[in-house]
Amino acid sequence: MKTILLFIGLSWVGWEAWLPSAHPTRLPAFKSESVADSGKVIYDTYCLSCHQANGAGVPRLNPPLAKTDWVLGDKTRLIGVLLNGLDEEVEINGETYANAMPAHNFLTDKQIADVLTFVRTNFGNQASAVMPEEVKEVRSKKK
Amino acid sequence: MKKTTLFSALIGLSLAAPVSFSTDTPPARKPRPDADNGGLTLPQGFGAVVVSEGVGKARHTVVAPNGDVYVKLDRLENGKGIVRLQDTNNDGKADSTTTFGTFKGTGIAIANGYLYASSDTSVYRYSMKNGVVDESSQPQTIVTGLTLQRQHASKSIALDDAGKLYVNFGAPSNSCQEKDRTKGSNGQDPCPILENYGGIWQFDANKQNQRQSDGMRYATGIRNAVALDWNPATKQLYALQHGRDMLATLYPEMYTDAQSAELPSEEFLLVKKGADFGWPYCYFDGQQDKKILAPEFGGDGKKQDRCAGKDRPILAFPGHWAPNDLLFYTGGTGAANSFPAKYKNGAFICFHGSWNRAPLKQGGYFVAFVPMGKDGKPSGKYEVFAEGFAGGPEIMSPGDAKARPVGLAQGTDGSLYITDSVKGKVWRIMHGK
């Protein structure tokens, strides 16, 4: 099921831009790998320094992404956090975190979908993928 | 119970054989260090005993003249925010733990016959009688009504010997961008945050109910100084700045991950009245050995511009180590108990440990010693004094650390106490056997 969803997601928006330039083929197998690659590249670039390589975050400062309802639950809320940022006191598993989450609305729908899919399927998380069209919808409602 | 106490005290005595007793001080009997020094690695001749395995989310600490250890908590335990540890049988281990104070926070200090303690919005003090804190008394409110920040909210405190109280007002911001930590967001120029934050304010240590406006902005351009201490030897205020984060995340075209891990330096500051250390416009680059214009304000990683005239640190450490406490070591009342002469009037610095060095391995997570000269400046390089808190040689993420050093205090006998923020472990470091 996940593979099919990913495949639909991929064919929706220009995923080619996010394949490494040396990528030799467009076989489906490579496509699903490249979603993960793209999500990881975005995570490493924009998320890792605060949320850490293992998604554990930083005590007191930056919230964890592993096993929290903010990541595993309502996708609309999660997409909204990426698009709009979050700067209010939120309690996660009994802890609060001081740093502001900046808005990442400069990322494309596809990039946000990829990185959220990466986050929702790593660090011990097992949740469904996020589709670019879901990001698009949340983004359009904001405006 | 009393018998047991006496008995173990006798055992303690017989085991601590080589100690020389002096007549002018309280019994100079020292506890035996733990066999593993509480998991710490120390210079030769030093030993550590674990006073408590965990008091809660500890921040700063102070030791009263009678030897009671007070620890400020970052989160209330059973509704209380200050822990008192008592070691009645002198085996080094706390055998009585009590809590008081209904506020959480960071700062704690003893001066003028009072125990001062801060929440993130106030500074209070408790009266003391014969060196013992009157815990049941209602504390006096010295500073009140501060705005609750989310970021850099810790109100670290220091007191001088002339009735003044110094309070850190950390900036609720990384680099005073229009939108905090947001890629592409410009720096606010001038930075409005500096009016009420990003500096150290001076208050009357004895006057009640002061607002921030009753205090004086003593120094500015300091992003956040969790480590703050008065050096009685030079009669000057010192602090360590937590440098800004995310140079590579916000400006990947200007900084590599490796550069961003080292930059900016964590700065050891001699804080003179009226000093301006440059935040948010400037940061200190230890490799170029100068203040550099921040990219949010037009910097390119090399340009100095308006930063040329800003006050410099007296020592620069690698980036993001998070200096969270500073202690000028004066030595104990009995010479037999003090650390060796080289430590006298030197500075101990507690590095809580980094997160923003990722994806590179983290740094900090140890207590450093900096020898200080008579001119009030470092007289040599820093050295690692106590390490092993995190429980592994390489920490990739702060959540992996078993313990993180956060607070320092000196006992009247010359012992150095260290607190941990993970579980609130407390160590006592002693010299000699």
Explain the overall architecture.
The complex is a heterodimer of chains A (143) and B (433). Chain A has a two-stranded antiparallel sheet. Chain A is mostly helical and 143 residues long. Chain A has a single domain (32-142), classed as Cytochrome Bc1 Complex, Chain D, domain 2 (Orthogonal Bundle), CATH 1.10.760. Mean pLDDT of chain A is 80; it is low at 1-33. Chain A is built from six helices and two strands. In chain A, a hairpin with a 2-residue loop joins β1 (91-92) and β2 (95-96). Chain B is mainly beta and 433 residues long. In chain B, the strands form seven sheets. In chain B, strands 6, 7, 8, 9 and 10 form a five-stranded antiparallel sheet that branches. Chain B has a five-stranded mixed sheet with strand order 11-12-13-14-18, with no helix packed on it. Chain B has a four-stranded antiparallel sheet with strand order 1-28-27-26, with no helix packed on it. The model of chain B is unreliable at 1-26 (pLDDT under 50). Classes of the chains: A mainly alpha (143), B mainly beta (433). The A-B interface holds A 44-46, 48-50, 52-54, 56-62, 64, 85, 87-89, 98-100, 102-104, 106 and B 74, 150-153, 179-185, 245-246, 248-249, 252, 260, 355-356, 358-359, 396-400, 421-422.
